[in-house]
Structure prediction request, 117 residues.
Amino acid sequence: MFRRTFWFTAGAAAGVWATAKVNRKLKQLTPESLAAQAANKAVETGHRLKDFALDVRAGMLQREAELDEALGLAAPVEPDRELPEPRRRTALGPAARPAPHSFSKMPTSSYNRNEDH
Prediction:
Protein backbone atom coordinates (compact mmCIF):
# COMPACT_ATOMS: atom_id res chain seq x y z
CA MET A 1 0.00 0.00 0.00
CA PHE A 2 2.87 2.34 0.83
CA ARG A 3 4.41 1.71 -2.60
CA ARG A 4 1.23 2.68 -4.41
CA THR A 5 0.99 5.92 -2.43
CA PHE A 6 4.63 6.73 -3.21
CA TRP A 7 4.22 6.16 -6.96
CA PHE A 8 0.90 8.03 -7.03
CA THR A 9 2.55 11.02 -5.33
CA ALA A 10 5.59 10.84 -7.59
CA GLY A 11 3.37 10.73 -10.70
CA ALA A 12 1.25 13.65 -9.49
CA ALA A 13 4.38 15.70 -8.78
CA ALA A 14 5.83 14.88 -12.20
CA GLY A 15 2.52 15.89 -13.83
CA VAL A 16 2.41 19.22 -11.97
CA TRP A 17 6.07 19.90 -12.84
CA ALA A 18 5.53 19.06 -16.54
CA THR A 19 2.35 21.17 -16.72
CA ALA A 20 4.13 24.16 -15.17
CA LYS A 21 7.07 23.79 -17.55
CA VAL A 22 4.79 23.56 -20.61
CA ASN A 23 2.82 26.63 -19.48
CA ARG A 24 6.04 28.62 -19.02
CA LYS A 25 7.22 27.64 -22.50
CA LEU A 26 3.85 28.56 -24.03
CA LYS A 27 4.01 32.00 -22.41
CA GLN A 28 7.50 32.50 -23.87
CA LEU A 29 6.19 31.72 -27.35
CA THR A 30 3.35 34.26 -27.40
CA PRO A 31 3.76 37.04 -29.99
CA GLU A 32 4.06 39.70 -27.28
CA SER A 33 6.80 37.79 -25.50
CA LEU A 34 8.68 37.12 -28.74
CA ALA A 35 8.46 40.82 -29.66
CA ALA A 36 9.80 41.82 -26.24
CA GLN A 37 12.67 39.34 -26.54
CA ALA A 38 13.53 40.64 -30.01
CA ALA A 39 13.46 44.24 -28.78
CA ASN A 40 15.72 43.38 -25.86
CA LYS A 41 18.18 41.64 -28.19
CA ALA A 42 18.14 44.63 -30.56
CA VAL A 43 18.86 47.07 -27.73
CA GLU A 44 21.65 44.82 -26.44
CA THR A 45 23.16 44.57 -29.94
CA GLY A 46 22.95 48.35 -30.32
CA HIS A 47 24.85 48.84 -27.07
CA ARG A 48 27.51 46.35 -28.18
CA LEU A 49 27.91 48.12 -31.54
CA LYS A 50 28.18 51.49 -29.82
CA ASP A 51 30.85 50.15 -27.46
CA PHE A 52 32.71 48.65 -30.42
CA ALA A 53 32.58 51.95 -32.33
CA LEU A 54 33.87 53.83 -29.28
CA ASP A 55 36.72 51.34 -28.87
CA VAL A 56 37.64 51.65 -32.56
CA ARG A 57 37.57 55.45 -32.33
CA ALA A 58 39.77 55.46 -29.21
CA GLY A 59 42.26 53.11 -30.89
CA MET A 60 42.23 55.23 -34.03
CA LEU A 61 42.96 58.43 -32.09
CA GLN A 62 45.72 56.71 -30.14
CA ARG A 63 47.34 55.39 -33.32
CA GLU A 64 47.00 58.77 -35.02
CA ALA A 65 48.77 60.41 -32.07
CA GLU A 66 51.55 57.79 -32.27
CA LEU A 67 52.00 58.41 -36.00
CA ASP A 68 51.98 62.19 -35.52
CA GLU A 69 54.67 61.84 -32.88
CA ALA A 70 56.76 59.47 -35.02
CA LEU A 71 56.54 61.76 -38.06
CA GLY A 72 57.14 64.92 -36.07
CA LEU A 73 53.76 66.37 -36.92
CA ALA A 74 52.87 66.96 -33.28
CA ALA A 75 55.51 69.70 -32.96
CA PRO A 76 54.04 73.21 -32.55
CA VAL A 77 54.24 75.55 -35.53
CA GLU A 78 56.74 78.37 -35.12
CA PRO A 79 54.84 81.68 -34.99
CA ASP A 80 57.60 83.72 -36.71
CA ARG A 81 57.56 81.51 -39.76
CA GLU A 82 54.94 82.33 -42.36
CA LEU A 83 53.33 80.09 -44.90
CA PRO A 84 54.50 80.42 -48.51
CA GLU A 85 52.39 82.28 -51.01
CA PRO A 86 49.75 80.16 -52.73
CA ARG A 87 50.61 79.06 -56.25
CA ARG A 88 48.81 80.64 -59.11
CA ARG A 89 47.64 78.67 -62.04
CA THR A 90 49.31 79.57 -65.26
CA ALA A 91 47.08 80.40 -68.12
CA LEU A 92 47.08 77.66 -70.67
CA GLY A 93 46.57 78.61 -74.26
CA PRO A 94 43.25 78.02 -75.96
CA ALA A 95 41.96 74.61 -75.13
CA ALA A 96 42.40 72.16 -77.94
CA ARG A 97 39.10 70.65 -78.86
CA PRO A 98 38.86 67.12 -80.13
CA ALA A 99 37.68 66.59 -83.67
CA PRO A 100 33.91 66.11 -83.90
CA HIS A 101 32.77 62.56 -84.45
CA SER A 102 31.27 61.74 -87.72
CA PHE A 103 28.29 59.49 -87.30
CA SER A 104 27.63 59.36 -91.02
CA LYS A 105 30.50 56.90 -91.46
CA MET A 106 28.89 54.32 -89.21
CA PRO A 107 27.72 51.20 -91.00
CA THR A 108 24.04 51.09 -91.61
CA SER A 109 22.50 47.69 -91.31
CA SER A 110 18.94 46.71 -90.88
CA TYR A 111 19.42 44.53 -87.84
CA ASN A 112 16.27 43.59 -86.08
CA ARG A 113 16.89 41.60 -82.94
CA ASN A 114 13.32 40.36 -82.94
CA GLU A 115 13.86 38.72 -86.28
CA ASP A 116 14.06 34.93 -86.37
CA HIS A 117 17.32 33.72 -87.86
